[in-house]
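Example record

Each entry pairs one chain with its bound ligand, 1-deoxynojirimycin.
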Amino acid sequence: MESTMKLPLLGLAFGLVSQVALAANAAPALQDKQAFIDHLLSQMTEAEKIGQLRLISIGGPEMTREKIREEIAAGRIGGTFNSRTAAENRPMQDAAMRSRLKIPMFFAYDTLHGERTIFPISLGLAASWDLNAINQVGRTSAIEASADALDMTFAPMVDIARDPRWGRTSEGFGEDTYLTSKISETMVRAFQGKSPAERDSIMAIVKHFALYGAVEGGRDYNTVDMSLPKMYNDYLPPYRAGIDAGAGGVMVALNSINGVPATANTWLMNDLLRKDWGFKGVTISDHGAIKELIRHGVARDGREAAKLAIKAGIDMSMNDSLYGEELPGLLKSGEVSTAELDHAVREVLGAKYEMGLFKDPYVRIGKPENDPKDTYAESRLHREAARDVARRSLVLLENREQTLPLKKSAAMAVVGPLADAPIDMMGSWAADGQPKHSVTVREGLRRALEGKGKLLYAKGANVTGDKAVLDYLNFLNFDAPEIVDDPRPAAVLIDEAVKAAQQSDVVIAVVGESRGMSHESSSRTTLEIPATQRALIDALKATGKPLVLVLMNGRPLSIVKEREQADAILETWFSGTEGGNAIADVLFGDYNPSGKLPITFPRSVGQIPMYYNHLSIGRPYTPGQPGNYTSQYFEEPNGPLYPFGYGLSYSTFALSELTLSTTELQRGEPLEVRITVQNTGKLDGETVVQLYLQDVAGSMSRPVKELRRFEKLMLKAGESRTLTFTLGEDDLKFYNTQLHHVAEAGTFNVQVGLDSQDVQQQAFELR
Ligand code: NOJ
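Structure tokens for the complex follow.
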């Protein structure tokens, strides 16, 4: 009785309370999630339940928009993705409100590093090692996406990537478990705000569960084979961190895991995710992944694929063709039970409930009169935040003879195929970012130099001279090819750039990858800068002018030769809408670079996989003691070109000796690690103090070191500060061969440094 009384009041309070509850007899109060969903479920026909499990792509070839609206009104679609304005989504929600039970739709999109204002790609965000900045990216993205009627984002993408041939390395946060986990929870909280039900929040869908970053050979969509301890210790924690931070859902990976595709993997989704981790949200397949179970060779046909997926725990089918077609038959024959169907439907309704859609289906769509007049208006952007974050993501790799910062009075040449490339500034998965809003490097330099110095520009080279590669990269963009090829001969382009260089005091070459080279389905067999651009660098070097390389890329590049040629190298990833301004800020010293690599840069592709936290081995290569029968490649120097955690500043920093509060740690007690860091240079600046741990002798081989804490701090020139890191027993734990999470007694090394290799070390014993 009490609950039925509440509804009209709620209706008054919220104005738009979903008609679902009002229509039903004795509908429970909206506040009681479980009762509300149970009641709704009891009203649904089987067809309506199946409809809720279907997630449909907008703009795809499969269904016109009109057809989609018809299907929604008939209760045959649960949510859509890829539409991105209120004007597009409102008619679909209206259609849902015409359906029998008026169950609201949700609208999803891949908002990874900004929606309209594009921030640096995820790998660049990780390079900032700045959780406040990353929080700002997530919040701003949620504010912009929700203002355009989006309820859900397929992000964060937290796949650990240790094989940079994989193009999606750009979408994740690098090779490290701890750094990625911290960013995962930060992003989830930032997207979801106080709650995913808030008007300016979007629900986070952590992806790709699981281990997608470990595809064999770095070739996209390939298989993953991995030991359980490696999975539990290195690859699973970032997903768990996002889930523990409250992510509303999980997107399931396209790859198989030890022979069983994730999409059909009962162990993964039911035993691990739901039972062990207690996950309560919605699981969504990746695009067409259920159908792919046939090609994976685990399902005979579509019927079996749908059956495997729902039984394994896939609630929603993205770009569905099979749930809609096959579930009715499977239910009829009893191969799929009503309980299994209801379980999946409950999760979808639960997610909609959490997004606040039952309370107000139009919470993010708003009223037509409030729709922005111009979706792409400049006033809708958050440029200041984008510039601030972009500056923090840039990593200074080389700076010989203090080539940088540059003087604004100089005459300079900016050259290279990426110097004036608005699309590439945004990187892949740039949501609804508009190239016309991008500040390119050329434009950023022009603005900074205006009235002070001279700037010449020449393209100098095409991104690639390989026609087949060009065609591949432009394959999906028939209307307006992403990479515009200059038809002039390579020598003519180079000549033009050399002339510009000769008339300048310094040359800035913006080189690397086009954004499509670091994308889904863009795996590479080499990490080199394409040959056309390397020829340009050779020619520029020959001019004798100081040469600054500005790298744009979404993965580590092997730049052994370029490192020798360049006087300075700035790694800029794909730095977003304000990238050009941010890069100019660093090149001219208006911002002192502070980024650190979130992923190892190998010397060559042959060294892969190369990551700093590898396990100890019996015959390690020992620098300074060359010889046979140790683990090494004999044709080139061993070790990385640039290690994880590395990055320079215009200032210098020194660390004092490291002290531990005890060398005998009792379980349950804290260990305090103290170190003083001093800015020993002439400029104020930020650095990142990194703390690594090594479990020296365990029941199984353990990593040579693992990041366990970090702190980014600003120090004025000459200033010093003492940092105290507190560690506990939990920080010493790992999953052993039995998958028990244990801290084993014995010696641990604590290492602290400003990168992963140049560290100070002290030991303690865990009793
Ligand atoms: C496929 C990608 O693998 C996934 O990351 C993305 O979220 C979906 N497509 C939707 O765009």
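The chain has a mean pLDDT of 95.
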